[in-house]
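To: structure desk
From: M.T.
Subject: fold request, one chain
Message: Could you run this one when you get a chance? Sequence is below, nothing fancy, just the single chain.
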Amino acid sequence: MAKVKRNLTVGTSGIFQIISIESRRAAFSFRGWTNDSSNSRREYIQVEIGNNSSIEIAIVRKMIELIRRYYPGNFNWESQRLDRTVVLSARIEDNEGLEAFMLKEFFGESPRNNRFR
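Reply: Done. C-alpha cells follow.
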C-alpha cells in the first residue's frame, strides 16, 4: 500500500497483469492512474502474435506501447523480480534493452523455447 500511495504522488503509474497466454494470443490488463486516485482506470488488452517471433514479445511490445503514451524518456519501474525500483528508458533508441528487461521481468530467465532471442 505504501508503494501505491507513493506512486500516486508523482506522475502516472500503473500495474500490468497477464491474464491469459496461449501460443498465438494473450490478454493482459493495465490499471493506470495519475496524481488523482479517482482517475484510476483499467484497460483490458488482447494481443495476437502477428509478425512477432513469440507471443511473449508481442505482449511486451504492446506494454511498451502503453508506457510510451505517458513516458517519452526515462521512467521508474518497480521490479518485483529485483525487489527494487529501476530507471528504464522508453526512448525508441533504447528499445532493445527495454524489451529484454521486460521479457526477463515477466517471463524469467527461460521463456518458452527462448523464441524471442
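Reply (cont.): Residues 5 and 37 are 9 Å apart (CA to CA). Let me know if you need anything else for the meeting.
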